[in-house]
Design goal:
The structure holds two protein chains of two kinds. By secondary structure, chain A is an alpha+beta fold. Chain A is 19% helix and 33% strand. Chain A has one domain: Ubiquitin Conjugating Enzyme, CATH 3.10.110. Chain A starts with a strand and ends with a strand. Chain B is of the alpha+beta class. Chain B contains three helices and four strands; from the N terminus they run αββαβαβ. Classes of the chains: A alpha+beta, B alpha+beta.
Chain lengths: 179, 100
């Protein structure tokens, strides 16, 4: 993957690789705590369900002109924060990624900076691709993001990931559950 | 005392503009008054270490809670912004996002 500047020079972006799990755990949870202290989650009504040291489910509320529906987003810290968190919409019984249109996969008329793929070939396996520059999976597929949008540790945290998802689950983009 | 307080409210810097950087959940508060240029607050937030914004980009967004984009109104004073566009003193910054 290449990042090309206006002057034509390009940088090569690495594919995500797992980072030291102890460092990842510390950073991932520290950034979650910082986010919760900021007041943003209270503003949006987000919930937080820890699964294990490196995975947390975030409850987001989608808004379609007043009607509200909740979704479960599983964040993973396997690559964090050298790369963004891994992201998937999950169903609430087992916290596993949604695999077909259902109540837990949203219908979104995606803005230009987002793609939602429920069944995308990812590293040879079918899986979700929540496609914007603040998810780890975005960097597993060839993309050419602008300089300002490239995930930069210290500049971006998982706050950026969740805020953009919240925006996509709001008017004018969100239309309701996919089934 | 009441009159003094009134005067501060009209011309002083007794308003707090609370800014959250959605990119990293950093927050900072800026003292301002109705006569403070919006551009001055924007300059301050870009310089804020608490917000941690590295540089300006064309696709930056600054939004007023319950209102719209603020960057386009940088030529106004804070009082004019509140009167004509958005009364909230809680603003949110977001940088560019790359996508599909």
């Amino acid at each position: 993957m290449a990042l090309c500047r206006r002057d034509g020079r390009c940088l090569v972006l690495d594919r995500p690789t797992a980072v030291d799990p102890e460092v990842a755990e510390l950073t991932f949870n520290e950034h979650l705590d910082e986010l919760w202290r900021s007041g943003l989650p209270a503003t949006h009504g987000w919930g937080r369900i820890p699964l294990n040291k490196l995975h947390t489910v975030i409850v987001l509320w989608a808004d379609r002109g007043g009607a509200k529906e909740h979704y479960f987003i599983r964040l993973g810290g396997e690559y964090y924060d050298r790369w963004p968190p891994s992201v998937s919409f999950v169903e609430p019984s087992e916290w596993q990624p949604v695999k077909a249109n259902c109540r837990w996969w949203p219908a979104v008329n995606c803005p230009s900076w987002l793609g939602l793929h429920i069944n995308h070939a990812l590293n040879g396996n079918p899986g979700q691709l929540i496609c914007f520059s603040f998810t780890a999976e975005y960097y597993m597929v060839d993309h050419n993001p602008g300089e300002s949008a490239v995930w930069t540790p210290g500049v971006h945290t998982l706050s950026a990931t969740l805020c953009r998802l919240q925006e996509a689950l709001s008017p004018p983009y969100y239309h309701g559950p996919s089934a | 005392m009441t009159e003094q307080k009134h005067n501060e409210g009209s011309h002083g810097n007794d308003l707090d503009v609370f800014v959250t950087n959605e990119n990293n959940s950093g927050t900072d508060t800026f003292k301002a008054g109705p006569g403070t240029p919006v551009a001055t607050i924007i300059d301050q937030l870009y310089a804020s270490k608490k917000l941690g914004i590295p540089k300006r980009y064309n696709d930056d967004r600054l939004q007023c809670e319950g209102g719209g984009d603020i960057l386009q109104f940088s030529a106004l004073h804070l009082g004019e912004l509140a009167e004509k566009h958005c009364k909230s003193l809680r603003w949110r910054f977001a940088g560019g996002t790359g996508g599909a």
